[in-house]
Amino acid sequence: MGNVISGGRELPAVEEMNPVEGAEMENVDGKKGKPVEIVIISGKGGTGKTSLTAAFAVLNKGCIVADCDVDAADLHLLLKPEIIEEHEFWSGHNAIIRAEDCTGCGICAEHCRFEAIKENGSAYEIDELSCEGCGLCVRLCPEKAIDFPPRLCGKWMVSRTRTGPMIHAQLGIAAENSGRLVAVVRKRAKEEAESKGISLILIDGPPGIGCPVISSITGADMVVVVVEPTVSGEHDMKRALELAKHFNIPAGVCINKWDINGAAAERIEKRAEELGACVLGRIPYDPVFVKTQLDEITVVEANTRIKDIVENIWKEIREFGGKHGISWS
Question: Structural domains in the chain?
Answer without folding.
Answer: 31-91+154-323 (3.40.50.300), 95-148 (3.30.70.20)
